Amino acid sequence: MTPRSVLRPGDWVHFDGGEHQVVGLAGASVRLRSEAGGADQVVLAGHLMASPDFAVVEGCPAPDVGPFGLLDALPEDVLAAAKQWERHIVEVETGLPPHAPLEATPSPEYDPAKHSLAGRQRAKGAELGVSYRTVENRRLRYAAQGLWGLVDQRAVRTWEVAGRADARLVEVVREVIAAQTEASTGTRSRLIRQVVKRVAEIHGPGVVPLPGRSAFYELVDRLAAGKHTFGSAVTRRQMANRPGGVFTPTFASRPGEQVQIDSTPIDVMVVLDDGLPVRADLTIAVDIATRTICAAVLRPVGTKAVDAALLLAKMLVPEPMRPGWANALRLSASRMPHARLVDIDTRMREAAARPVIVPDQIVIDHGRVFVSETFERACNRLGISVQPARKGTPTDKGVVEATNDAVKTLFAQHVAGYTGGNPTMRGRDVTGEWTIGELQDLFDEWLIVGWQHRPHDELRDPHQPRRVLTPNEKYAALVAAAGYLPLTLSGEDYLELLPVKWRRITDEGIQIDNRTYNAAALGPYRHQRSGMVAKRDRWEVHYDPYDVSQVHLRTPDGWITVPWTHLPMVSAPFADFTWRHARRLAGRGATETQIARVLDDLLTRAEHGPDKASARITARTRAGQATHRPQLPEPAPPLAVNESTAPDAEVIPFGIFDADADAEAEKWI
Length: 669
Hints:
Elements: E1 12-15, E2 18-26, E3 29-34, E4 40-44, H1 45-50, E5 55-58, H2 68-72, H3 76-94, H4 117-128, H5 132-145, H6 167-179, H7 188-203, H8 213-223, H9 233-240, E6 259-271, E7 277-287, E8 293-300, H10 305-315, H11 338-344, E9 361-364, H12 373-382, E10 385-388, H13 398-410, E11 434-435, H14 436-451, E12 460-461, E13 464-468, H15 471-482, H16 491-496, E14 500-503, E15 510-512, E16 515-517, E17 539-544, E18 547-555, E19 558-563, H17 576-586, H18 592-604, H19 612-624, H20 659-666
Parallel strand pairs: 6-9, 6-11, 9-10
Antiparallel strand pairs: 1-2, 1-5, 2-3, 3-4, 6-7, 7-8, 12-13, 14-17, 15-16, 17-18, 18-19
Helix pairs in contact: 3-5, 4-5, 6-7, 10-12, 17-18
């Protein structure tokens, strides 16, 4: 048995960069005398022994505890051989093998009373057929490491992944493997060819020995393990993009403390108005504290900055009940504080069970949708702090990324027209069956019944960890704990979220993208200065990219809604990208009237199956009109255009969607 480690007066220890002798012990204090100058000092025993450089120089050293876990992992024959050697070493040191009976006597050749330690070691070497030096080395290793010192080290030798390959070759192989991260996936033979050429460039031809073909392939496989060098390129980039530090989960203690926003294509084919199947972009905002999907907007691929701004507006207004929704989806039927919310906003009376969450901070990526003047201005207007995630670090907004995956698993795969995550998962002849408006309504209903009422594994009661809460239950609990006052947007607030153009007001009106907007209400402001010196005295004009049939002018007296002068010539709503497409069809040098006629023809031909480019533009226009907007100021009457060029046509007003009126109308269909 190893003697117990103790510290006695007279022992020499290494401490604080020098050697000291223990001259006294008193309770938990140790008096040390320095060897260099003979100075005495008293230190606590715990402080002395916890010092990084503490060691006993003379006396009984601290025992080295063996790695018992590694002993359990050894093969049985290796461990049995070590225990057999332990029996022999103990017999050499004490004269008796381990666990000998009390009446046992030492063998004559191992009796410590008759033979010295050296003699006993020679006798054991003769018995085992090994040299004296072998027995002595085993005894010393056993004294220092215990049973682990007797283990055959060949069985525990660390395996070098590169084997016996030349270190210079291994370095080049690692370099070439790392260069495959952003490249298209190739074969092992391509990589080996690149390695051979790179080795010759650095060290010269024939200088570095190369292994045989099979050994080279094996070396590449070992060094590329876990990197997906010859697998999926997407997986390879994701593995390489993992942050080096420890992943830290995002916490929030109250609703709206942090909201993460992201936009991604949804794996469902949708049908545009002309029957053209396309994929749609899904932009969602997720509250960290409650895991509530605050708002979600579906758009044809090509999400714009105004869509992100409108997402903010949708977050800050109650979700109205839709026709056909069950009463169980009402806010009054949920566990949220309905009575308290109704006192704040009467619209909560007919609202669905989705909380209105006002974000304090929004985390975004560096997509052009969010890094835009429109979105930043909307957040500044609402008093929201914007925190960009680090580039190439999706873990900074891991909650919304995980929510996107959950939406694909819990919703998208159950919808007709599901395409799968990549082409290898797509079925045969997958076509869209839902229009984008129908899919938006379906998704809004699923958010309330399928997401807000579904227990979320990250929402556990701290006092009852086994209980999993739903987003609505978590919201109710945090509102009671932190207090919360939802904010709502008015029509003027909505206008503030729209993009801005700075224009002069002339006799013809306001010119934007070769379109003329005019109304009698512009009279007092024609040829006047706005007072905005930084904008060269131009006027602030807001417009909706999904409905450019009218613009909104900010004046000292309030907002003026100004219609397009050629609105009577167009029989359907149109967006800014619809107008640009019509301009391309009309050709260079076309007048505004000619473009308006081409635009009307473009929208009319949609139902007869035009070319795909025109169909996509038309369908995106109609899909954009489905946006639910708050009540806007009434437009001013347009000025009359030249009667010789203006055809007789009925003016179709651009009304605002009203869910209640729409539901009432459907009752009589």
